[in-house]
User: Which sequence fits this backbone?
């Protein structure tokens, strides 16, 4: 019985430590990574915790990557209420990577928005050289379809926020 318990404990302890990697710099500036703790003489040591047994996959389809390369999406929005929220959610639902520009926080974004649509009105979507002012589901879908973006994402999008410039 105790032998079985010892084996079980040794196996589970391997899983507990499997996600930790140590990074340190030696006195000559060499950078090392190891599953063993760094020596006491190490400079700038840190522990990198893994996510367990995770395999990273592309979250964007080939068609989505091509569309993004040819027609990157920019969303001009701020806290304008349901229209801006729906606009952000629409892009997330379709799995489209986009850059969020808030003209109320950045004067350069405000100037660019006014030049683009002639007013400080949000939301505005830009896909490549095309743009639309205001949010309307079918119009946005048409614009994104014409830009080459797939209707459904390859992997369901995470609930995180979009990229910011």
Assistant:
């Amino acid at each position: 019985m105790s032998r079985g318990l010892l084996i079980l404990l040794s196996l589970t302890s391997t899983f507990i430590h499997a996600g930790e990697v140590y990074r340190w710099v030696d006195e000559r500036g060499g950078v090392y990574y190891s599953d063993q703790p760094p020596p006491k003489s190490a400079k700038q040591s840190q522990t990198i915790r893994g996510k367990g047994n995770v395999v990273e996959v592309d979250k964007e389809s080939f068609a989505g990557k091509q569309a993004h390369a040819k027609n990157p999406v920019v969303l001009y929005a701020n806290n304008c209420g349901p229209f801006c929220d729906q606009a952000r959610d629409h892009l997330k639902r379709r799995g489209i990577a986009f850059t969020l520009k808030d003209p109320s926080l950045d004067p350069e974004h405000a100037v660019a928005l006014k030049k683009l649509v002639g007013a400080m009105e949000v939301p505005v979507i830009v896909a490549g050289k095309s743009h639309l002012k205001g949010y309307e589901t079918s119009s946005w879908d048409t614009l994104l379809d014409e830009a080459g973006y797939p209707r459904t994402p390859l992997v369901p999008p995470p609930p995180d926020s979009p990229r910011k410039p």
